[in-house]
Amino acid sequence: MRWLLVQQGANPSADFFLRPYLRNMNAAVTETHLHNSPPLSAPFEGVIFVRYLTPDWCKWVEQHRSHIGRLVFFMDDDLFDLRAHTGLPLRYRYKLWKMALRYKGWLQRMQAELWVSTPWLAEKYASWSPVVLQPQSPYVRSTPQKTLFYHGSASHGAEFEWLYPVFEQVLEQDASLSVELIGSQAVRKQFAGLPRVHVLHPMSWPAYQALLARPGRTIGLAPLLDSRFNAARAPTKFFDITQAGATGIYADHPVYRSLVRHEHNGLLLPMEQQNWVEAILRLSANATARQAMWENAQFTSAVPATQFPEQK
């Protein structure tokens, strides 16, 4: 029979402690979100709640307790002592009470096991006979990541919107890519539904220069939609992307044609989303092409501005 792991979305608690422990048990595991509806039946060898509970799940456990072998609550913080929460933000303290602390007595009545992350917690709750789980690295099986980035500003709202389906497809098709953006809280919310997207806060120019000097970026994007505002832009993103150590994909727009030669020091593409998806995936898979274009882009960056060829 299977184990059911109930958690509030992907979280480090499960990755560091529970998945390795269950894997060592050779347990078959079904995972579900805490805010999903409970299953209709409960023929489970064990059910584990990761840190939190809800009234709906409590009701489900009560209805199906006889069909659940082991009922487990796991915590890697001191969730059951209100005094330990002193000094935490009020909203977080309320969450801990609402979703954990108030269920302590109920868990004991349901004869739940307590699994904890440290000997300190085990000693504090010794009367419950807790099981201490040892953390293990969740990174052993992780895929090395390449950074695909777009560093937009408040004036690039249309480009952010245009890029969303591009990122959606690329992230689904290439597990080795992560996305880095610079944007406001609105941008953070806009991309919150996509995996492996990191949104940095806008920063000062010196801070941004230091950011670009740090290694680790692979492909830089410079889309540009036709607008009166965009018509006045200069091709400075070419220099940003090159400084970041990345290969650039640029809009085939007069702004970039003066600097970028297609497939020589970057890619020039029409603003068609599927073209960008395919180009990103090709570049991601071809380190040799990326390196060659980046080296050529470095040379272009070093050429005095008066020597830039004008392309029609």
Main attributes?
312 residues, Rossmann fold, six-stranded parallel sheet, 13 helices, 12 strands, 39% helix
Oligomer: single chain
Number of strands: 12
- List the strand order in the largest sheet: 2-1-3-4-5-6
Highest-level CATH class of the largest domain: Alpha Beta
Rg, nearest Å: 26 Å
How would you describe this structure to a colleague?
By secondary structure, the chain is α/β, with parallel strands linked by helices. The protein has 2 domains: 2-132, 3-Layer(aba) Sandwich (Rossmann fold); 146-307, 3-Layer(aba) Sandwich (Rossmann fold). It is built from 13 helices and 12 strands. It has helices spanning 12-24, 55-64, 90-99, 104-109, 119-124, 157-173, 185-190, 205-213, 228-231, 236-243, 254-257, 273-285, 287-302, and strands at residues 2-7, 29-33, 44-50, 68-75, 113-116, 131-132, 146-151, 177-182, 197-200, 217-222, 247-251, 267-269. The strands form 2 sheets. Strands 2-1-3-4-5-6 form a 6-stranded parallel beta sheet. A 6-stranded parallel beta sheet has the order 9-8-7-10-11-12, with helices on both faces. Strand 11, helix 11 and strand 12 (267-269) form a beta-alpha-beta unit. The longest helix is centred in the middle third of the chain and has 17 residues, at 157-173. The relative contact order is 0.08.
